[in-house]
């Protein structure tokens, strides 16, 4: 995962959407206590800073040192650079002892993980039986009919060949991602539950978001510029006057509790 975002780490931090307060309120309502949360694949800390407003302490980890450089520094958030795969000893040293974490969150990253190994570690660190894991992804933004028409053709035809196969889990809104946990109190399934993240963007911000994609970087490494002059021109025409627009990112949450596993 880490290699996909090294070269555009600052762009990722500057252009990726934050997440709606309703998402964190829903998640927090499902954990009996709010002492310690682990934000895995934190990147530049988009989720960690919101979690830190609710939970007393947050351990935020990522395999990319470069992305962590751009994370917001907060007094109750500890950022840790970790290897892509940790041993159980490393997990205890870098994250937390067994059965001490109230909440594990994974924002826009679960599709990159080795699920069997990761879930074993999640079940080890979470408090039993009510410790919660919450993983979410967001899909492509919706702005206007004109902009979306240009985007959809570009996303399917031009960027498609450069996405890692793991991206298909996001396109599927995490419906078919492996998620071996029990429903949390008050619901009868583990999701996906839908939310919306709204971001005000001008055209340059929008194009910067596209440039932050792993697919954009992969194409660039192969000598392909996905946002060539002709395409940028089409986006400019579709955008119209360069006034900010509201981009709506549909967001999909899988949430479950560890039980007695």
UniProtKB/TrEMBL annotation:
Per UniProt, what is one GO molecular function of this protein? S-adenosylmethionine-dependent methyltransferase activity
Q: Domain (Methyltransferase type): give its ranges.
A: 39-128
The UniProt entry, under InterPro entries, shows: Methyltransf_11 (IPR013216), SAM-dependent_MTases_sf (IPR029063)
Taxonomic superkingdom? Eukaryota
Which region is the signal sequence?
none
Q: Which CDD domains match?
A: AdoMet_MTases
Q: Which Pfam families match?
A: Methyltransf_11 (PF08241)
Protein known as? Methyltransferase type 11 domain-containing protein
């Amino acid at each position: 995962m880490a290699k996909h975002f090294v070269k555009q780490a600052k762009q990722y931090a500057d252009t990726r959407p934050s997440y709606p307060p309703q998402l964190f309120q829903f998640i927090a309502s499902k954990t009996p206590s709010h002492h310690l949360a682990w934000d895995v694949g934190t990147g530049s800390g988009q989720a960690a800073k919101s979690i830190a407003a609710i939970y007393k302490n947050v351990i935020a980890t990522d395999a990319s040192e470069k992305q962590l450089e751009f994370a917001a520094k907060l007094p109750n958030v500890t950022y840790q650079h970790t290897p892509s795969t940790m041993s159980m000893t490393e997990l205890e040293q870098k994250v937390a002892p067994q059965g001490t974490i109230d909440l594990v969150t994974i924002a826009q990253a679960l599709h990159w993980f080795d699920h069997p190994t990761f879930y074993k570690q999640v079940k080890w660190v979470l408090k039993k039986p009510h410790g919660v894991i919450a993983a979410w992804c967001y899909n492509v933004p919706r702005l206007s009919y004109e902009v979306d028409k240009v985007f959809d053709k570009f996303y399917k035809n031009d960027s498609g060949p450069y996405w890692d196969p793991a991206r298909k889990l996001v396109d599927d809104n995490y419906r078919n991602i492996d998620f071996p946990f029990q429903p949390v109190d008050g619901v009868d399934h583990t999701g996906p539950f839908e939310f919306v993240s709204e971001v005000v963007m001008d055209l340059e911000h929008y194009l910067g978001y596209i440039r932050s994609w792993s697919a954009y970087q992969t194409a660039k490494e192969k000598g392909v510029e996905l946002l060539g002059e002709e395409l940028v021109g089409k986006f400019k025409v579709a955008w119209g006057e360069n006034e900010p627009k509201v981009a709506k990112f549909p967001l999909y949450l899988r949430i479950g509790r560890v039980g007695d596993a």
